Amino acid sequence: MNYKHIFAQAIDRLHSEGRYRVFIDILRNKGAFPNARCFHGHNGPKPITVWCSNDYLAMGQHPKVVAAMEEALHDVGAGSGGTRNIGGNTHYHVDLEAELAGLHGKEAALLFTSGYVSNEAALSTLAKLLPGCIVFSDELNHASMIAGIRNSGCEKRVFRHNDVDHLRELLAAEDPDAPKLIAFESVYSMDGDVAPIAEICDLADEFNALTYLDEVHAVGMYGAHGGGISERDDVAHRLTIIEGTLGKAFGVMGGYIAADQMIIDVIRSYAPGFIFTTSLSPVLVAGVLASVRHLKQSNEEREGQQAAAATLKRLMAESGLPVMPSVTHIVPLMVGDPVKAKRISDILLAEYGAYVQPINYPTVPRGTERLRFTPGPAHTVEMMEELVQALVEIWDRLELEFKKAA
């Protein structure tokens, strides 16, 4: 068996399909986001503007967050000391879980090392503990949710994206007494659309199902206190579990779930992804705590981000660029070809100092490859105008189709 040859073939397939991923070597400039330095493809750092960060509100650069992390570092040191059970249950963790539970109006919350881990651990554990559980999953759910459902070993039913009629059909076809769990997201980050949360909750009530809502692209971003779409739409109290990340709008790292005390205790006690993992560094947790507390009180960042997203969508549309419809902060620009998407990204970085990564299969379906822009409160109108001018020039150069005015 020639193992090396098999691995080489696997990489060659990615190259031939135009979807081999290249990680760009950058450093962000503290306090000056979206400005950064790029070390990719040239000698020494080159100034660039970042357009694809999930640090949506630039909270990873916020003075309160940086100061809280520095204070914690000098107070308790770098690491947590182990798993939560053994040595890593710092007071920072306890405070942050209480803050997150309050954010969503739940009794308790549980921290994980990432949003991926929180989804995988919570979904696999919860469904596995319910005998004969059937999980109903939106077809565009994140890979971490799919992994958690698969690892639960339960029956799975996939409903068409945001299609409550199809979900109803699937629920009605099952044994009324079988345990049921509906898993879905609030904001789907590749298209920027939003789930009909209240309607799904109505079905959950009717068919006696639990609900699991992934709010990773919405926490910090929506609602009066940053509780997400579920807070904005006043439906958080109807959801069984709300899951979120600490690495996007909150600007640091980690994931969590919020639910009633019993569910949190069950997952805390049974999930291997929680039990056997060293807990987040208290330095990181202190930064998140400062970020969550700030965004509970401040709408300035959210309003600035929404304004920037609306402006960039308008400028792209007016220039005939194929910007996809989006009701959220996500600004997807359709390309439809992985090689061309990578080429546009390369030209933007090399010639214009604009950094945006191409989004290819399996993140999105084949034929829907795109560039995904996430303008934030610190992106100026001038930056956006320069970006759109660059994109128009590249579209002309590569003889790509413009979108005809309606």
Characterize the structure shown.
- This protein is α/β, with parallel strands linked by helices and 406 residues long.
- The chain has two domains: 8-50 and 299-398, Aspartate Aminotransferase, domain 1 (Alpha-Beta Complex); 63-296, 3-Layer(aba) Sandwich (Aspartate Aminotransferase, domain 2), CATH 3.40.640.
- It has 14 helices and 16 strands.
- The chain has helices at residues 3-16, 63-76, 91-104, 115-129, 143-152, 164-172, 197-206, 229-232, 261-270, 272-275, 282-297, 300-318, 338-352, 381-397; strands spanning 26-28, 35-38, 46-50, 108-112, 134-138, 155-159, 180-185, 187-188, 193-194, 210-214, 241-245, 255-259, 331-334, 354-355, 358-359, 370-373.
- A seven-stranded mixed sheet has the order 4-12-11-10-7-5-6, with helices on both faces. Strands 1-2-3-14 form a four-stranded mixed sheet, covered by helices on one side. A three-stranded antiparallel sheet has the order 13-16-15.
- The mean pLDDT is 95.
